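Hi C.,

You asked whether I'd gotten around to modeling the 445-residue construct. I have! Everything is below, sequence then structure, no commentary in between.
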Amino acid sequence: MASSMASFVQESIKDAVKSSMLKEAARPDSKLWGDSTTDTQAERSGNLAAHTQNQTPYHSKSYLNGDVNVDNPISPTRLEMLHDPLDEWYLDEKPSNSLSTPPLSPETDPFILSKNDMLTLSESIRTDLIGSDHPVLSQAASYFFDEGQDGGKKVRPMMVLLLSRAMESNSTNTSDVNPVRPDLFQAQRRLAEISEMIHTASLFHDDVIDGADTRRGAPAVHKVFGNKMAILAGDYLLARASIFLARLRDVEVVETMSTIIEHLVRGEVMQMKGADVNDSGNERMVQYLRKNFYKTASLMANSCKSAAILGNYNDKIVGASYKYGKHLGVAFQLVDDVLDYDGSASAMGKPALSDLNAGLATAPVLFAAEKFPDELSSMIGRKFKIDGDVERAVELVRKSDGIQRTKDLAQVHVELAIQSISELEKSNYRDSLIHLAHKVVDRSR
């Protein structure tokens, strides 16, 4: 009796500590995530002004002259981009549907323009970037890059490669500090491969955490190799990506891409915590969209930004690239939310309603909860764990305008992405990025 009581007390303490830590880590202003020099928005703005006034442009040997220190961001003029406050989600906006779209032709089709690069991307990652003397680790790490398993959409590397070509027409918008590197497109292609490796590593880890059975229509990695090997394979992919990231020899790109990995962890912590039942509907939605940025949009935004940094483009082009990736990433995840209800398991490569069955309240549910707060708020709080919760939640979502509002919000962010990329000079590649944005909201998988 005494031992069982002690065990109960220990578990209660453990649960309380875990809940407290998750709550703290999920806060936007949590000290767990802040830099010592940039903990708050006010401090970020102050430091930005101070660094801009006091710091000379970075180059590889500037530390020899005492121009920088280890606490300063590498590119102070882009500090606010690196620490995006994520304070505007356009929840009250409606799609304008008024943006002009260039005609779709073989010369502007994103899939045709990127076809040759996409055909060789997985093979390049498998043969050039993944190398291990351990056969099982190598096989696990290469799982989604092997022929026959290579069924992902590869939107992230496609964005990077199309954007890299589109920016070639903006050669007059490069910075005067450093010349354009002679291996620019080769470096940008390697960046595209690195972005796909980071994404794939996150899938390995997510599927273990979520207990997913399938991914891309095939058994999840941990179902084939076990949980430990799946986690190690994900870690190994991140390690290899870090090595090749360093070989790009651009410290600002290293800083920017490293932020993605922090965001992936931060987003997963927010997802583990779940929605706070005491928050208003709007607060829950903002928290959800922040989590989506960390888990999905940050990789797209910062990969696009890094492609512009590699090309030594000015802040206007770098900012446009970042915003294009950010808004398209937000739209991409919102469409995923809709497809969890409307898509087929065979097309999606995972079971329908997988989010609800995993206890996740996505945008359609959160919007529906504004119409049916009493029922859905309780289900959201208990993560749909009671028998019948999932079925009832689906019924209420379909009775509400939750799915349509999610589609509308995705369209709003697609339009913002198109506005951002329209800052670039007109070219077939720029127009292909506009068509890619439209395809994101029109897709069925």
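If it helps when you're writing up: The CA atoms of residues 21 and 186 lie 43 Å apart.

Thanks,
B.
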